[in-house]
Design brief:
Glyco_trans_20, elongated, 803 residues, alpha/beta, nine-stranded mixed beta sheet, six-stranded parallel beta sheet, single chain, 28 strands
Length: 803
């Protein structure tokens, strides 16, 4: 097999490398080192050649999936291969540029035994179909696909936890090792054909979730995307997977990660945040994760269908007379259609129970409505397939016996042709999808296209499938609620033709414009955009196993040179050393620092973090009832004792002043205030680092709050310190200082009313006002009038005031 791996440095240096496909002009390629665990960087003389990577129209796309889009058959010792026209991986190339070459890497659906025969088959597939097959030993295939994929990843991604060995199976380390080994085999096949400087690689689905790490380790600047076609569970479910971090880190070695819905992407981002400490950013409609200097893009785009393929099959079914045959068979009946794979997550049994419920509640549909349930063969040896099949068959038999000769359920579990399936789409008045969890499910899309001739259609869709958010005109149901689903079926059958046409037109506009070509074209454009700076950055590979990642840095970044540092140290006239001390120094460290400090040109600073400050930073401090935070370290308390007192209203000391002015507004933002005695130019203020300082106020008219403070919390009245206003002496009252002197009393009243505390508070309205507001124990705001101190017996706040 011809190789384009470009991993031989001698071939790179000489420029003699093989070319597969169309001829390309020879380019100056960067050097690539293949030492395990290390990722190369561009040399200075090679950077210029890589600053302008090739455009999309001249590059290749390598599609990597578990299955090749081929049908294989062996007759009389001769192999016969043909394209699978219904394969998504074959259809998606319609969205690529016409001159873009597409290669496929994957496995066959049939076993090829013997190394000689495998080489023969591989040569045929490469020459005729541009496909590179991966062949597995029987035991590896069983543990990889039927083991880890179908018995552990598939149930977990569909929200089924292995509570018992029979319920999905417990984690098996040998199956995980087989999964890794299979991914490595796919990697080896990709290496055989890849040109890392020109090619795009698009990896599909949960079978190959660790493949990005293998490729990124080998080619640090490879342009690689990954798309997950199954649901991604919430973090509470995903975190139960023993290899959760390994898979997350492997996926993050991709440049672009795609999901069908926003919910799946949100779950993935939450897992990255909670398990890896990564935060995402959204800029101009694009979501990205910063991962060691690389930006990993997140793509949300539900897949579509191949419109041309569906329309072509529909014409064939009409020519073969399938549509007329089914119309005669179900003449006089309203057909509801369900098409599902044999899977425990498809909710087939719930659909049958909902049909039974509808017939019981709405007897007018007995003998008139029939549910045709087509069950496709299971895709693998999943969990409880035979048990699920038995339950479905038993439910069908019981419902048909209950309603006698009407036979409301038609159960088809034998393989039928795609032309016959499209004929059923044509005659069905409603399609019902009740999957309890499904990545996408394209059945509703296909039904809408096939009903374009009738110009009307109705959908009853589960809210747990990926296509549900895209079909706003569908009747969404919770399939677990059998009664509500039964009512939804009755609503769909009773809907007027005009309403059906409106819903159909809305759905058809979306499906026809968001087909599979649109999906693949959009993904490729985003992959090109996210990789535009690949050849401009300097990259280093770090880590072992699945902890491997590529660190991407600015092209101007250079590694520190030890000889250069030593040279600069010797030539420097003064040097500064800083050491952070979080815990007692190790033995001998103290002496080393003293020896460094003994040199006259050296300045040594040891930064010691106080334990209490660290605890307060972690949120372990307490908060006062009115939201005033008390965060005072020992050094601050010492300063408070040494600072002079300020005669604020004649009796407040500086420590109480600090408590009063250190406010937290309603949104939790700390604010600072300036307060001083009227007529003086001195005061105190507190910055956001909790540090108190003196501040000179040139024009202090009453010591008002700083202008930058937009809102100040209502202060708590400190018992025993009563501010009274002598009604007979207005001059004395004017000398009183109030922290809210510049606020109108309506604003203060509003602040009191918004305060949810059940404390009694006192707020003077303005400097010379004789009224204020307080709040009683019943959260009622009352107006109070200031009186002489002798009249209220010294009670500053409370029910003793005249209201």
């Amino acid at each position: 097999m011809i190789s384009r791996s470009y991993t031989n440095l001698l071939d790179l240096a000489s420029g003699n490398f093989p070319v597969m496909g169309r001829e390309r002009s020879r380019r100056l390629l960067p050097r690539v080192m293949t030492v395990p665990g290390n990722v190369s960087e561009f040399d200075d003389d090679d950077q210029a050649s890589s600053d302008n990577p090739s455009s999309v129209s001249s590059d290749r796309m390598i599609i990597v999936a578990n299955r090749l889009p081929l049908k294989a058959e062996r007759l009389n010792g001769t192999w016969s291969f043909a394209w699978d026209q219904d394969s998504l991986y074959l259809q998606l190339k319609d969205g690529f540029p016409e001159d873009m070459e597409v290669l496929y890497v994957g496995s066959l659906s049939v076993d090829v035994v013997g190394s000689h025969e495998q080489e023969h088959v591989a040569q045929i597939l490469l020459e005729k179909f541009k496909c590179v097959p991966a062949f597995f030993p029987p035991d590896l295939q069983s543990k990889f696909y039927h083991g880890f994929c179908k018995r552990q990843l598939w149930p977990l991604f569909h929200y089924m936890l292995p509570f018992s060995p029979a319920n999905g199976g417990r984690f098996d380390r040998s199956m995980w090792e087989a999964y890794v080994a299979a991914n490595k085999l796919f990697f080896q096949k990709v290496v055989e054909v890849i040109n890392p400087d020109d090619d795009f690689v698009w990896i599909h689905d949960y079978h190959l979730m660790v493949l990005p790490t293998f490729l990124r380790r080998r080619f640090n600047r490879i342009r690689m995307g990954f798309f997950l076609h199954s649901p991604f569970p919430s973090s509470e479910v995903y975190r139960s997977l023993p290899v959760r971090e390994e898979i997350l880190k492997a996926l993050l070695n991709s440049d672009l990660i795609g999901f069908h819905t926003f919910d799946y992407a949100r779950h993935f981002l939450t897992c990255c945040s909670r398990m890896l400490g990564l935060e995402y950013q959204s800029k101009r409609g694009y979501i990205g994760l910063e991962y060691y200097g690389r930006t990993v893009g997140i793509k949300i785009m539900p897949v579509g269908i191949d419109m041309g393929r569906i329309q072509s099959v529909m014409r064939d079914s009409e020519k073969e007379g399938k549509v007329m045959e089914l119309e005669r068979r179900y003449e006089g009946k309203t057909v509801l259609l369900g098409i599902d794979d044999m899977d425990i997550f498809k909710g087939i049994n719930l659909k049958l129970l909902a049909m039974e419920q509808m017939l019981k509640q709405h007897s007018t549909w007995r003998g008139k409505a029939v549910l045709v349930q087509i069950v496709n063969p299971a895709r693998g040896k999943g969990i409880d397939i035979e048990k699920t099949r038995g339950e479905i068959e038993e439910t069908c038999r019981r419902i048909n016996e209950e309603f006698g000769y009407h036979q409301p359920i038609v159960y088809i579990d034998t393989p039928i042709s795609i032309t016959e399936i499209n004929a059923y789409y044509h005659i069905a008045e409603c399609v019902v999808v009740t999957a309890v969890r499904d990545g996408m499910n394209l059945t509703p899309y296909e039904y809408i296209v096939c009903r374009q001739g009738a110009k009307k259609s109705v959908l009853v869709a589960s809210e747990f499938i990926g296509c549900s958010p895209s079909l706003s005109g569908a009747i969404r149901v919770n399939p677990w609620n059998v009664e509500a689903t039964g009512e939804a079926l009755n609503e769909a059958l009773s809907m007027s033709d005009g309403e059906k046409r409106l819903r159909h037109e809305k759905h058809y506009r979306y499906v026809s414009t968001h087909d599979v070509a649109f999906w693949s074209r959009s993904f490729l454009q985003d992959l090109e955009r996210i990789c535009v700076d690949h050849f401009k950055k300097r990259c280093w590979g770090m880590g072992i196993s699945f902890g491997f990642r590529v660190v991407a840095l600015d092209p101007n970044f250079r590694k520190l040179s030890i000889p250069l540092i030593v040279s600069d140290y010797k030539r420097a006239k003064s040097r500064a050393f800083a050491k952070e001390k979080k815990r007692p120094m190790e033995k001998g460290t103290d002496g080393k620092m003293k020896s460094v400090a003994s040199i006259p040109a050296n300045y040594v600073s040891i930064l010691q973090l106080q334990e209490r400050w660290m605890k307060e930073k972690e949120g372990k401090h307490k908060e006062r009832d009115l939201g005033v935070k008390q965060q005072q370290v020992d050094g601050q308390r010492k300063r408070e004792k040494e600072e002079p007192r300020v005669n604020l209203e004649g009796r407040f000391h500086i420590n109480r002043l600090k408590k009063e002015t250190n406010c937290v507004d309603k949104e939790g933002v700390e604010v600072s205030a300036t307060v001083s005695k009227k007529g003086e130019d001195g005061g105190y203020w507190r910055d956001r680092k909790k540090k108190w300082s003196k501040k000179k106020n040139k024009k202090n008219q009453g010591g008002s709050v700083k202008e930058v403070v937009k809102s100040v919390s209502v202060k708590e009245e400190i018992p025993g310190d009563n501010i009274v206003q002598n009604r007979e002496n207005a001059a004395a009252a004017s000398n009183l200082i109030s922290l809210e002197t510049q606020f109108q009393h309506l604003l203060i009243k509003k602040r009191v009313e918004e305060d949810g505390r059940d404390r009694q508070v006192k707020v003077p309205a303005r400097l010379n006002s004789r009224q204020g507001y307080y709040r009683n124990q019943k959260h009622e705001t009352r107006t109070m009038v200031w009186v002489k101190k002798g009249e209220n017996n010294g009670a500053g706040v409370g029910n003793s005031f005249n209201v």
